[in-house]
Structure formats: structure tokens, C-alpha cells
Backbone:
């Protein structure tokens, strides 16, 4: 394990955490799209409406999460990056009884440690 790769991994995970926190805060205030509940319906719309209804952070979070998981794997980590793993699971599991995205975001934010305790 190279120290440079470890530092890169740490920097990517911090950036991901910051992006996720910001996206969760927007979602908790009513911006849908983070958890993909309406992706099928949004995909049927034109590009302009799609861009308006989709949280812009989603694509970046998914891309960075994949980069983190790939780097973790190359460094010999067995476990996935927990924050990304949870986001992917939450984006893929929703049914009629799943709470709405703002409620899910609030629940997740309530579980996070205070910012001063992070990092």
C-alpha cells in the first residue's frame, strides 16, 4: 500500500462525504432525486425537465463512489466505502412503503455525527 494512494483515498472519501452531506441537506429541504425514487418517470421527460428534477450531485456521487471502491479494492480493502454502499442500496430499494426522499434524507442526517466530530 503506497502512502500516496492512501492519501488519495482519504481525500476522495472526505470529498464524497462533503458532497453527500450537501445533497442530503438539499433533499431534506425538498429537492428530490438523490435516492432515485422518480428516476423512471424523470427519464421519460425531456432533457430540460430531467435536469431540473434531478439533483446534480447524484452523477458525481455515483462516479466518485465507484472511484473510491476501485481504489479501495486496489489497496486491498475488503469492505466497500460505507457511505457510497448505503446510497447505492437506498437508490435501488424503494417500493410503495418507502418513505419519501426528504424524509429519508432527514433520517440519514439525524444519524450522522456532528460536523465537528467528522474528520
Residues:
Amino acid at each position: 500500500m503506497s502512502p500516496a494512494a492512501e492519501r488519495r483515498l482519504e481525500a476522495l472519501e472526505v470529498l464524497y462525504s462533503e458532497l453527500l452531506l450537501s445533497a442530503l441537506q438539499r433533499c431534506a429541504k425538498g429537492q428530490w432525486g438523490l435516492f432515485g425514487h422518480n428516476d423512471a418517470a424523470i427519464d421519460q421527460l425531456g432533457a430540460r425537465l430531467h435536469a431540473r428534477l434531478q439533483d446534480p450531485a447524484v452523477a458525481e456521487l455515483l462516479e466518485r463512489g465507484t472511484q473510491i471502491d476501485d481504489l479501495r479494492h486496489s489497496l486491498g480493502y475488503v469492505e466497500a466505502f460505507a457511505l457510497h454502499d448505503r446510497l447505492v442500496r437506498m437508490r435501488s430499494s424503494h417500493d410503495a412503503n418507502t418513505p419519501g426522499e426528504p424524509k429519508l434524507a432527514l433520517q440519514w442526517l439525524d444519524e450522522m455525527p456532528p460536523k465537528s466530530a467528522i474528520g
Q: What stands out?
A: The chain has one domain: 3-110. The chain has six helices and no strands.
